Amino acid sequence: MSLLEQLFAAELHIEPWTILWREVVGNVFGFASALGGMRRRVWAWPAGIIGNALLFTVFAGVWFANPQDTTLAGQAARQVFFIITSVYGWWMWSQQRRAQREAGQTEPFTPRWATTAQRVQLGLFGLVGLVLCQWVFRQIGAGWPAPDWYYWADAWIFVGSILATYAMARQWVEFWLLWIAVDLVGVPLLFHSGFIPSAVLYLVYGAFVAWGFVVWMRLARHEKAPGEEALHGAETQAEPASLR
């Protein structure tokens, strides 16, 4: 067995669980990505890509002969989606950061709230996606006789993650709330399926995401978007501080 194969198969045994080291490492990169996202750092995206690639091999359990001997199709599929959208988010944030540097701005981008129309679009996509994905995952199967709620939960984790990642790339404050909704379903499902490191990290994410939401909400309230002052100079000067 090569060194790469040994690292890929490395396990941590904590009775009664067998844990893959790549699940632990993948979640460390995931947490680093979340921290970078909260701080509005471009490096959050490549860090997330590394974590997503590792976690895909964990959640596609049956395909990789993992010790859990089960597959979370929604969790595995969302890692693929994360990699794709992270490339988009990485490019988008990099472009904006470059434009800010050229304009002499040193602060990262300004978070903002989605409009009512954008929220409605997110809601409709989420509803349609949830119904469609639970049917698809049911056809794929879980590798064991899973109950109905299992597929609905797995589908929401996938669809909710799509919505949250897209909203993060668009710099909408709501993406934190979407992650909270994903965590509320994800933690019980991961514990139930034996993915303990991921479940524990999701619990940590819960507090972290709540903190990130407060941080972005304050930034959206108090910071001006790039070019805002130039476009609305006189109006901005006249606004009460509480509305900025």
Approximately what portion of the residues adopt beta-strand conformation? under 5%
Distance between the amino and carboxyl termini: 60 Å
Number of helices: 10
Main pleated sheet: 2 strands, antiparallel
Strand/helix succession:
HEEHHHHHHHHH
Q: Give me the side-by-side strand order of the main sheet.
A: 1-2
Compute the number of strand runs: 2
Give the structural class. mainly alpha
Shape: globular
Number of domains: 2
| Sequence stretches where pLDDT stays below 50 over 5 or more residues | 225-244
Average pLDDT metric: 79
Q: How big is the Rg?
A: 20 Å
Subcellular location: Cell membrane
Protein name: Nicotinamide mononucleotide transporter
Pfam families: NMN_transporter
Membrane topology: Multi-pass membrane protein
Q: Please, could you describe this protein's structure?
A:
It is a multi-pass membrane protein. Its main location: membrane. It is found in: Cell membrane. This is Nicotinamide mononucleotide transporter. InterPro entries: NMN_transpt_PnuC (IPR006419). The protein has two domains: 102 residues, no CATH class; 125 residues, no CATH class. The chain is mostly helical and 244 residues long. It starts with a helix and ends in a 6-residue tail after the last helix. Strand 1 and strand 2 form a beta hairpin. It has ten helices and two strands. It has a two-stranded antiparallel sheet. Helix 2 runs parallel beside helix 8, helix 3 runs antiparallel to helix 4 and helix 6 runs antiparallel to helix 7.
